[in-house]
Amino acid sequence: MTIAVRAAVVITAASLAVLGIWMWAWPDSFADYVAFPVHVHFLHDMGVFHIGLAIALFLSLAQRDSIFVLLTGFTAICLMHAGNHLMDHDLGGTANAPYIIAVQGLISGVGAWWRLRELRKVPLAQARR
After folding, report:
1. CB 3.0 to 4.6 Å from 41: which of 47, 88, 105, 129, for a disulfide?
2. How many domains does the structure of the chain reveal?
3. CA-to-CA distance for 64 and 1, rounded, in angstroms?
């Protein structure tokens, strides 16, 4: 990976992380900045999606396997998203949503763990095929 590509990944991941944390932690401030009505739960969700993408991008610098990176990023998104639904239960939604989302995260987390096990058993040259 060239230094230019690595720099693009770092800058993109950092901007996603900063925006995601802003949306999640300070939804009123973010909504005011972008000039649209505040919808706290929507901004919490958008924040964790941005943070999860940032996690996947940062992870891609250390682990080149796309399946592992995507499953890990999706797991992070699902677990934070489920947390949002628990935290924002008073804002609406169904009572079972956090559990359904958490199960999706569990499935992808097991998949990521399984993929990492496969990668450790296979020589690097074969894992990139």
Report:
1. 88
2. 1
3. 10
Distance CA 88, CA 110 (A): 27
Q: Read off the tokens for 87.
A: 């935290």
Structure confidence by residue, pLDDT tens digits, 31-68: 999 999 999 999 999 999 999 999 999 999 999 999 99
Residue 41 and residue 52 in contact, taking contact as beta carbons nearer than 8 Å: no
Taking Cα atoms as reference points, which of 67, 72, 32 lies closest to residue 56?
A: 72
Name the 3-class secondary structure at 1.
coil
- DSSP label at 16? H
Site of tokens 């499953």: 71
What would the two tokens of residue 108 be?
């992808």
Count of positions (residues) in the chain = 129
CA atoms in the 13 A half-sphere facing the CB of 24? 21
- Domain span at residue 49 reads 3-127
